């Protein structure tokens, strides 16, 4: 006769609570992310020539057609989470619209006329999505890279939609962007910037992984 009690099939396993930053840490990381975004707006991304060419050609750098700004947006989200990442970028945009020259081409309320303003608006949902994905599981480079990649996609999606609206609605007097100029704008602001930004996504994921290990979450 088997006297062992049968296992309870209706037993609900307790969900493991993932470590995450405290409210104070979120606030501090949001402030740090805001300052980092401002600084990185004006720092270009460079890469050296392949190491096997160093002996014959020497070491020289090539610009990758982007700045570290997007990396700062995604890094803040990976470390601080969805709220900290979104709040940092909301503060960045509000300060830039308040005539502080912290955008790539200055600042002020009329900055909405810049074709790249849609990408800046995309920083807010992009950071939120990246931060949300970054804390859906235990800290892993793959998860962080996925969050950064999806966040980058959201940023470009917002920028492309904004460019399309400018062209279709003929915003500005005279119109800032015509339908004929739209393909070139998409090529310049999205396609040409993507290779460098994807490299930046990889670097950001690795850096975020080690920083989160140091911070124990």
Outline the fold blueprint:
Elements: H1 23-40, E1 44-48, H2 54-57, E2 61-67, H3 69-97, H4 117-134, H5 141-169, H6 182-191, H7 194-214
Antiparallel strand pairs: 1-2
Membrane topology: Multi-pass membrane protein
InterPro entries: BioY
Subcellular location: Cell membrane
Give a quick set of tags describing it.
217 residues, 7 helices, single chain, mainly alpha, globular, 2 strands, Arp2/3 complex 21 kDa subunit ARPC3, two-stranded antiparallel ribbon
Task: Describe, in plain words, how this protein is organized in 3D.
With 217 residues, this protein is mainly α. The chain has one domain: Arp2/3 complex 21 kDa subunit ARPC3, CATH 1.10.1760.20. 59% of the residues lie in helices and 6% in strands. The chain contains seven helices and two strands, in the order αβαβααααα. The chain has helices spanning 23-40, 54-57, 69-97, 117-134, 141-169, 182-191, 194-214, and strands spanning 44-48, 61-67. It has a two-stranded antiparallel sheet. Helix 3 packs across helix 4, helix 4 packs antiparallel against helix 5 (141-169) and helix 5 (141-169) crosses helix 7 (194-214). The N and C termini lie far apart (49 Å). InterPro entries: BioY. Belongs to the BioY family. This is Biotin transporter. Keywords: Cell membrane, Membrane, Transmembrane, Transmembrane helix, Transport. One of its GO terms (molecular function) is biotin transmembrane transporter activity.
